[in-house]
Design a protein that fits this description.
single chain; HicB family protein; alpha+beta; 26% helix; Double Stranded RNA Binding Domain; flat; 70 residues
């Protein structure tokens, strides 16, 4: 078993989940469904393309200036 990261965001009425370590993505009506679908997609991907190295994902936040336009 390996631990992976799920990054989620909402697009209209669906949640999109992405795995940055592998590059897989999926979606679902709920956060739980999106993560479960991502798990399935990642398992299928890794069956076909096993990881040769263990990579740690680093996450951080950053700010950008956004100009308001009317």
């Amino acid at each position: 078993m390996r631990m992976f990261t799920a990054v989620l965001h909402k697009e209209e009425d669906m949640y999109v989940a992405e795995c940055p370590e592998v590059g897989t993505a999926s979606q679902g009506d709920t956060i739980e469904a999106a993560v479960n679908n991502l798990k399935g997609a990642t398992e299928l991907y890794l069956d076909e393309f096993p990881l040769k190295e263990v990579r740690k994902t680093l996450m951080t936040t950053f700010e950008v200036a956004v100009s308001a336009k009317a």
